């Protein structure tokens, strides 16, 4: 793998193993506000989209007021249960530490809102590894639009796109990076298949530690 100076990471499904947490939250919300059940597979396919886009996929179009009500209840529920589900994938902390020690610049580029992103990064002990955090509050357009990756490059003062790698676990991450003009790495997780996504990644990883082939 090429050596990059800048690494951009998706959060949920890439750094955080939060698939079950996300599912439990949408199950709660769909039952409460949609009077419906929802499958794990359907929720997994939406990971990487903003909360509003996910809710509208399941519940239909929402006014701003309705989204504020439902989204607020959804996040309140998540904050009440996250401690039972939040954990890092194996190798995440070690990889980030090594990248940092080698002088690499790292950013999170996520559809998770800033409040819980900060909380989860701190709870898992990896907050200080990042030089920039790009959340939906920072951009007008969101994944798979290229704006979030472009915002991260601007925040990191990276002018040469060939120096950056976008790392994610969904087609939304890969398309976002591709459209922004950077190389991409798809991390194989059980809820996604790289062969099913439209945009081919530059690399396919089974473990984040593959970013540092000489680790250990």
Summary keywords:
alpha/beta, 8 helices, Rossmann fold, 216 residues, 2 domains, DNA polymerase, domain 1
Task: Give a nutshell description of this structure.
The chain has 216 residues and is α/β, with parallel strands linked by helices.
Describe the secondary-structure layout.
Elements: E1 6-9, H1 19-34, H2 40-46, H3 51-59, H4 64-81, H5 92-101, E2 105-109, H6 114-123, E3 132-134, H7 147-156, E4 164-168, H8 171-180, E5 183-187, E6 203-205
Parallel strand pairs: 1-2, 1-4, 2-3, 4-5, 5-6
Helix pairs in contact: 1-4
Strand-pairing-aware structural class: alpha/beta
Task: State the helix count.
Answer: 8
Largest sheet geometry: 6 strands, parallel
Average residue pLDDT:
94
The strands making up the biggest β-sheet line up spatially as 3-2-1-4-5-6
Any guess at the CATH architecture of the largest domain?
Answer: 3-Layer(aba) Sandwich
Total domains: 2
Strand content: 5-15%
Return residue spans where pLDDT drops below 50 for at least 5 consecutive residues. none
The Cα radius of gyration reads 17 Å
Shape: globular
Class of the largest domain in CATH?
Alpha Beta
Helix content: 40-55%
